[in-house]
Amino acid sequence: MARKTTLAIALVFASIAFAAVAAGATPISGTVTVENGTADGANVTVTPMTQGFQQAAKPVRTQIDGEEFSVNAPDAPLYLVQVVHDGAVHYEVLRNETSASMTLNQSLSGTVVNASGEPRTDAAVELTSSSGYSVDRTKVDSNGTFSFGPLKPNATYRVQVTVDGVPYVRTISTPGAGATNGTDSITVETPPPTDDESVLNVSGGNPASHVVQVIAPQNASQSPSAVETLTLRNEGDKPFVGSVELVAPKGAQPYAAMFQGRQTDYQKTPRGVSLNVTVPANSTARVGVAWDLRGRTLEKQFDRDADSVAVVFRGYQPENVTHSENLEAGDAPIPLLTNTEPISANDTIRLDLPAVTGSASASANGSGTAAQASAESNSMPEFPALALFGGLVATVAGGFVAYRVL
């Protein structure tokens, strides 16, 4: 049986420690108004958050009394307020304030049809916020129709329809607070998917569309590892369902793969690995591979154009790394290099990494909190999912941490 490996990517983007949370409590209150109904008895969860949008302390819970709620929450820079009403979850972020006001008076509806315009009766529908938080789920009825509500006004939602495992995504906004309840019904078409890889481009993503995290070895006798992630955008008008190939750095060996934040199977190819992925039309998906490097040199040839590239270090400082001229030190709160100009297919980046001492190796592991890298390990946890409330969301060009906006 093949030897299992340990993943080196528990902190793929989380190179910033949790912000300290001061002792004490802050009163958090709010009102929830439901048109033609009531939120009385609805469950409320208030989660303290760090400036980097990580969970800072245990959530506190309460219920709405009439239209109001109040609770004492641990002191924190931000608070995520979740209200569960009629099976749907609604969100609000409190920054520099301690009171939430939520109105639920709109709805979304639609019809799912096949390529011939006939209603589908076998579709599941999920509603998410613009930041990816799940709001509600349902199935179409015998006429292929669905509806969600009541919802927040002036809000942007994503409607994801899944048919035979293939996702179809539409983005829609609810009217303003003064509008009549309801929206025009949308029609979600579900044409057959494509397996033409040319519809996929490397674009978007944070801190860049193509990220290579370089992780120092555990001791001086081992080589470093790298975790490479790409954000793939489907520019076509059909979902992509097929395989994509990721080219390995020179001499590197794969030991794990990821799709949308979770471990997935992969197949070795002469140039690297192949992954099976699904990307809805006009949407993005994240794929990744963890590699064991050969020696202290990382030489990577790109097989796709990339508008932005970031090399993030764990256990190294950029000033101690010799690198190719198409990389430069990034202006960001974490140690990284960025591309000096757009990377084109067949371009190459090169890093010559310094030797790592025992103490530096320990710091690379975050005093034992980070996952460890080596194909010589004999245990393999799941490829870590990207946390719902967190991860590093660094804007490389501006050099600051960008917050998610609901």
Walk me through the topology:
Layout (H helix, E strand, L loop, with lengths): L24 E10 L8 E7 L10 E4 L4 E7 L3 E8 L2 E8 L3 E6 L1 E9 L9 E6 L4 E6 L5 E7 L4 E8 L2 E8 L12 E5 L9 E3 L7 E6 L9 E10 L5 E8 L5 E7 L2 E3 L2 E2 L3 E8 L4 E9 L4 E5 L7 E6 L7 E2 L3 E3 L6 E4 L8 E5 L5 H7 L29 E2 L4 E2 L5
Q: Which runs of at least 5 residues are low in confidence (pLDDT < 50)?
A: 1-22, 359-406
**Helix coverage percent of residues?**
under 10%
N/C terminus separation:
46 Å
Number of domains: 3
Major pleated sheet: 9 strands, mixed
Quick check: average pLDDT? Answer: 81
Rg of Cα set: 23 Å
What percentage of amino acids are in beta strands? Answer: over 45%
Give the class-level CATH name of the largest domain.
Mainly Beta
CATH architecture classification of the largest domain: Sandwich
- What is the β-strand count? 31
Number of helices: 1
Give a written overview of the molecule:
The protein is mainly β and 406 residues long. Helix content is 2%, strand content 45%. The chain has three domains: 25-104, Sandwich (Immunoglobulin-like), CATH 2.60.40.10; 106-190, Sandwich (Immunoglobulin-like); 198-401, Immunoglobulin-like, CATH 2.60.40. It contains one helix and 31 strands. Strands 15, 16, 17, 19, 20, 23, 25, 27 and 28 form a nine-stranded mixed beta sheet that branches.
